[in-house]
Write a structure and sequence with these properties.
Number of helices: 7
Shape: globular
Number of strands: 0
Order of helices and strands: HHHHHHH
Helix content: over 70%
Structural class: mainly alpha
Radius of gyration: 25 Å
Strand content: under 5%
Low-confidence stretches: 177-199
Distance between the termini: 62 Å
Mean pLDDT: 88
């Protein structure tokens, strides 16, 4: 599902901006979830005091995270593809090897997100006619789909920052197509100017 993006193009910068919003919102969602979990689980066993309420709150976390990723979803493959291109232009180092691993994690997570979405669409088509939004027959499999997607969304929250670091490094690289600047000694400049004046 790669949507073509050119490095440093307006579309690429827009997608990075949307990713930045996702990273911020996903941190907020996770912080709220951690606070809820701390308050509603036994501190020793980590078991929820109310399984049903805990499950509903977890579903909300999954849904909110997926909704936040919605602005990035269709361009996720493109962002990864650009980062892979940029990495090939960077000198090899321990840092770029780490970024390469993180980008591979993002590529795998994106592929799984797309697969989970396709699986949900197939499952929804197979649901009985009476399984409509709002019914348990519809909401339970939908919640399972959200729960499966959450892990891959969390991988984007963990590793997404690498795309900004790679882009910043790539922007600092000298452009191969730029003509090399040639230093002309002052004596040659003067001789050239004198020759031009004589013509």
């Amino acid at each position: 599902m790669i949507i073509s993006l050119q490095p440093a193009s307006p579309a690429h910068r827009l997608c990075l901006g949307q990713l930045a919003i996702y990273l911020r919102e996903s941190r907020q969602i996770l912080a709220a979830w951690d606070a809820y979990s701390d308050q509603h689980c036994d501190p020793d066993t980590h078991q929820p005091y109310d399984e049903a309420a805990y499950g509903r709150r977890q579903r909300r976390r999954d849904f909110d995270t997926l909704r936040a990723f919605g602005r990035v979803y269709r361009r996720a493959d493109g962002l990864v593809h650009v980062a892979e291109q940029q990495l090939t232009q960077l000198p090899a180092s321990a840092r770029t090897r780490r970024y390469t691993w993180q980008v591979r994690e993002l590529r795998d997570s994106t592929a799984r997100l797309y697969a989970v979405h396709d699986e949900w669409l197939a499952m929804r088509r197979a649901l009985p006619a009476q399984a409509r939004p709002g019914t348990q027959a519809f909401e339970d499999p939908l919640a399972e789909s959200y729960a499966e997607a959450w892990h891959y969304l969390d991988q984007w929250a963990i590793h997404g920052q690498a795309l900004f670091a790679i882009n910043a490094l790539a922007q600092r690289q000298p452009k191969a197509s730029a003509p090399a600047s040639v230093m002309v000694p002052p004596a040659l400049k003067a001789a050239a100017a004198s020759s031009a004046a004589r013509r």
